[in-house]
Amino acid sequence: MHRITIVSLKSLIAVLFALLLLCQTVVVPIVAAQMADALPPLAFLQWPGVIAAALFVLCLQVALACVWRLLTLAREGIIFNAKAFAYVDVILAAIIVATVIVLGSIILLTIVGAASPSITLLAALGIVIGAILALLVVVLRGLLRQASQLESDLAEVV
């Protein structure tokens, strides 16, 4: 991979990570407090919502950190290494956990009667996107495994 591509991707990942951290620590608690003030009957959902949002963003941050490490492995030319599989597995786990958080959140909102049709639609979209991403990572992991096997087979031949 070209050095400029990897540096550009890492720069964008760093910016996204910082923005996610800002959202996680400042924006979400402020918005949750405003919603609790605006809708007192649902104020009891403020902290569960903040916790769910923080965990969801943490999943994104973990996935970004793993992508960062995979980019480092690619730059060093050792992407077909056992280390890469561990990072891909963590990305897959983070996607699954984030999707379960969305599912659990919409179930809770539906139970307490706070789920509007638009929120339900967005949650359904998030669940479908999470499932697609998880399956995509599984396919890409399989391709990484095949490429690793091919590289080891070529190493034996040479």
Describe it:
Helix 3 packs antiparallel against helix 4. This protein has helices at 3-38, 46-76, 82-111, 117-157. It has one domain (3-157). It has 158 residues and is mostly helical. The radius of gyration is 20 Å and the shape is elongated.
Brief rundown of the structure:
This protein has 158 residues and is mainly α. It has helices at 3-38, 46-76, 82-111, 117-157. Helix 1 (3-38) runs antiparallel to helix 2 and helix 3 (82-111) packs antiparallel against helix 4 (117-157).
How many H/I helices?
4
The SSE string, one letter per element, is HHHH
Name the poorly predicted regions.
none
Category by helix and strand content: mainly alpha
Give the N-terminus to C-terminus distance in angstroms.
Answer: 23 Å
The coarse overall form would be elongated
**How would a crystallographer describe the biggest sheet?**
none
Strand content: under 5%
- Radius of gyration using CA atoms only: 20 Å
Question: Mean pLDDT score, rounded?
Answer: 93
Count of individual domains: 1
The helicity comes to: over 70%
SS elements, strand count: 0
Give the topology.
Layout: H1 3-38, H2 46-76, H3 82-111, H4 117-157
Short descriptors:
158 residues; mainly alpha
